Amino acid sequence: MKCPGIWKMLMAAVCVALLSSLQAQDLPGQVSIILLGATGDLARKYLWQGLFHLYLEEVGKGHHFRFHGTALTSTEQGQEVIAKVLESLSCPRDMAPGHCAELKAQFQQLSEYRQLKTPKDYLALSKDIEAQVEHEGLREIGRIFYLSVPPFAYVDIARNINSSCRPGPGAWLRVVLEKPFGHDLHSAQQLAAELGSFFREEEMYRVDHYLGKQVVAQILPFRDQNRAALDGLWNRHHVERVEVVMKETLDAEGRTSFYEEYGVIRDVLQNHLTEVLTLVAMELPVNISSPEAVLQHKLQAFPVLRGLQRHSAVLGQYQAYSGQVRRELQKPDSFHSLTPTFAGILVHIDNLRWEGVPFILMSGKVLDERVSYVRILFKNQAFCVQSEKHWVAAQSRCLPRQIIFHIGHGELGSPAVLVSRNLFRPALPSAGWKEVEGRPGLRLFGLPLSDYYAYSPVREQDAYSQLISHIFHCRKDSFVTTENLLASWAFWTPLLDSLAHEVPRLYPGGAENGQLLDFELSGGHLSFSQPLPEQLVPGPDSAPLPSDFQVLRAKYRESPLISAWPEELIARLAGDIEAAAVRAVRRFGEFHLALSGGSSPVALFQQLATGHYSFPWAHTHLWLVDERCVPLWDPESNFQGLQTHLLQHVRVPHYNVHPMPVHRRQRLCAEEDQGTQAYAEEISALVTNSSFDLVLLGMGADGHTASLFPQSPTGLDGEQLVVLTTSPSSPHRRMSLSLPLINRARKVAVLVMGRMKREIAMLVSRVGHEPKKWPISGVLPDSGQLVWYMDYDAFLG
Ligand code: BG6
């Protein structure tokens, strides 16, 4: 059985008729399944049972099977382990015991253990399969290699399979891989490239066991079968928020060597929860039984995920974790881990369907219960006049309206799909699903179970059994493609980088957590609802908490310096800008603010966008301090950053927004197009005395500011208000306000953040007025005020 692509399917349809007569003479086909790591934990717990399940499903449908358990363990030891595992296999409850025993005996007979270590072992395995197939008068139709091994072993194994264990012509190869698939985007790319040199994409099956969970696998069919009801509801107008949750009670003891390197985000959010998120958020293909269409639509869900910021996350760590790491990894007593074991993440999706709807992803170890689910909570715009006792579950618009894909565990104890009765009566596949029996007293997500239409699978099946069956049947949409994997890492890696030094909030674990980990959404950010009770969980000695510090006031280059932890610093700067705006509008009726681009001001833009309701935006003019010579819609454009992080969230009249004219007559920064003169004229016309109320600058690690660079005289003095300059880094061409224009401002704020700025901050603190070497040293407002805003990383190192 080959997995057909679309064209192959068409071809196959044509060929089937022609070949069917010939096929009659064909020998019966055999599939060999080689389980690597067959004595390991996962194999013992799930994979052998999954293989047995496949055998039960497929035996009698014309295929022959052979199962080869392999590992590095010696043959004798391995055989012993495997014999025990095979003995413990179970049949579905509804199978007659006699029949089960018979099939189990057959399965045991068809399964063997062998050591698989050297290239020679692989070659011998291949030869043995060929000989056995021939001996039994069969035809080999395919080989499945299931790699239940640590990822460092992948490449060697892949090389061996490719060079000496591929089946002969006409038979297919499928290689199944278990996570982790890399540690970040770069390592995932590397691993993908290495594997890609041995296998074709269609030969690889990357497992995410959440995709094998019955309820997760039901999300798309549910959306498909209920299109009529959901078409109008599955969008930002009706959905209040979406929660994707995996709570665990277990800790990481026994696997800290893995966990310490990965942490909760890499362990379960980057994969399991992201997969589930995309199934909810993606556009539904017309034909959901086409794996190609499903995969393609799923992939399209990634580019519209809004980039995550540090404030998109709250992190925690159960209190005993560091001790476990110290014990298991022989770390000194002073060692404190920063690895998060709990995370709440806020995801936004920038498309018309989901814009503005918060998707909350949450997972943690040592929480009060074990449960996973996706909850889609709908908005409630109704106002019910009659008292609650008259509300009827199926009719009242005032009861919460939600759909829950209950993946497993929790109080319900089983997988289920729940739909509030006041939403609609869902259609579910009639076969395989049944209505959940009433359980008086059971309340789920604020409602009694009786207020839901609730369905659960007739026969619960573990995820691995499902996935093994899908591998056999080429259901590629139940697996993670290379593109999908890399898109997910591309989404998560910047956040992981920015959180690398974040101190997670410690929590005692279990019910004792109380409300300590509750978090809330405000202004597009997540934050813990409760302040940190320090007596309960003191922070690690080596990493002081922001609350340990006060905002520091001092002088830097003879001008006022405000220094604090980043969060506080940004809040302070945003407050100062708002105060300046209010003052200017009160006095002159308008406020002229010139903003820099780059990464440092992003947090400021977000703060202004979300936390400053009294900001006089309607009377504010926004100017650019500098711009890259790229089209304004280019993600590299400073204007684009301003647009994404500020403008689209506030109400600045569009005629008050003044992007730099870098793109004129379909050319970028051509001298002849006189963009600099045009901007200078616009400034002169609108800004009294060409004196901005506030100019926000940054400081580059080389001492540049705006787009005025060292060793490049342009814009450092003279009459020109706006200049074209050249940056040492790409894109090289820039447009910038000149130093004389900047120095005409009433107030100049210089924002300097991050450890990378430490050295230049030290240096610039000592140098005099040398703008040619360090343009930032030339910033000295003629009659205005200069204030430095530096975070502790930049200021204290
Ligand atoms: C695994 C993670 O992928 O998923 C574990 O590595 C986690 O840390 C597990 O416990 C959860 O899976 P399930 O099926 O128990 O929800």
Describe this structure in words.
The protein is α/β, with parallel strands linked by helices. The chain contains 21 helices and 33 strands. The strands form seven sheets. A ten-stranded mixed beta sheet has the order 14-17-13-12-11-7-10-9-8-18, covered by helices on one side. It has an eight-stranded mixed beta sheet with strand order 21-22-33-32-29-23-24-26. Helix 2 packs across helix 13. It is globular and about 95 Å long. The two termini are 62 Å apart. About 4% of the residues have low confidence. The site of 6-O-phosphono-beta-D-glucopyranose (BG6) has 5 residues, from helix 10. The site of 6-O-phosphono-beta-D-glucopyranose has 5 residues, from helix 10. It holds the Pfam family G6PD_N. Pathway: Carbohydrate degradation; pentose phosphate pathway. InterPro entries: 6-phosphogluconolactonase_DevB, G6P_DH, G6P_DH_AS, G6P_DH_C, G6P_DH_NAD-bd, Glc/Gal-6P_isomerase, NAD(P)-bd_dom_sf, NagB/RpiA_transferase-like.
Keywords:
single chain; 797 residues; alpha/beta; ten-stranded mixed sheet; eight-stranded mixed sheet; 32% helix; globular; binds 6-O-phosphono-beta-D-glucopyranose; 6-phosphogluconolactonase activity; GDH/6PGL endoplasmic bifunctional protein isoform X2; glucose 1-dehydrogenase [NAD(P)+] activity; oxidoreductase
